[in-house]
Amino acid sequence: MSARHKFLVHEPEDMVGVAVEDVAAGEEVEALIMSNGHYLPLKTRQAVPLGHKVALRDIAKGSEVIKYGVAIGEAFVDIKAGDHVHVHNLQSLRWKKSVVRADDGQLVTIS
What we know:
Elements: E1 7-9, E2 16-19, E3 28-33, E4 39-43, E5 53-55, E6 64-67, E7 70-75, E8 84-85, E9 90-92, E10 99-101, E11 107-109
Parallel strand pairs: 1-3
Antiparallel strand pairs: 1-2, 2-5, 3-4, 5-8, 6-7, 7-9, 10-11
């Protein structure tokens, strides 16, 4: 039996949800907001593998990305609702002070 939802979201203010199974591009699915039990409709724009994040709303370049109710990183490109969110468009706060992304998208370590 398949779950009603394909993404989990912890808090209503979260900007991303986590896939509970592989989700194909173009699927119309729901995300369960765990803190209140509400469901959020969503259409994926790219495939999102199990355990990876999807954008729940548009996220502007330079914006902090919220997950678990806290900032987890910064968008280094504009991200659209339904986009797969991962290292290709999100810089983790964990490495923000020691690693930067060059104009060509490559990670560069700074001292």
